[in-house]
Design goal:
By secondary structure, the chain is mainly alpha-helical. It has a domain of 109 residues. The protein contains four helices and three strands; from the N terminus they run H-H-H-H-E-E-E. It has a three-stranded antiparallel β-sheet, with no helix packed on it. Helix 1 packs antiparallel against helix 2 and helix 1 runs parallel beside helix 3. 8% of the residues are buried.
Length: 164
Amino acid sequence: MELPVLLQLRELLLALALGTGLGLLYDLLRPLRHGRWKTAFTDALYTLLLFTALMLFALYAGRGRLRLFALAAMGCSGGLWLWLVSPLFRRIEAARRRLAQGIFRRVHLLAKRRPGSASNQEEAPTDIPRVQPPALPRTKEKVSGKCKKSVAFDEKSDTITNEA
């Protein structure tokens, strides 16, 4: 039985779209592949979805047949996705992950600094008054060997003077 050229073209375009979609699905599942059991689970899920997609494609788009050109088109478009688009997709995913980690870190630090938060209550009770540290003197002395130098700060003119 011969298949008209327009139906072959339609099947080819659908196979290209399916291969690209399966490449995208693989990239979407890639961040979940950390650890032995998560990798096994995501691989099993991808394989299940792949075979389901192939079966549905063969039944509906291929009219009960999985033709060789459609299988080759799926493989080529999926391979092109993984070769050309996937590196860009991975960079975008890494940037998204860094952004999310940065936001989480900042929110965590803000929650830690906020008075009355759980972490601050454990460290220092709020009913104890805080003591101000003593003011630093305006004159600092530096001793090096036998030479003694003094540095003074004049508040009126905002200058530093050396005194021997």
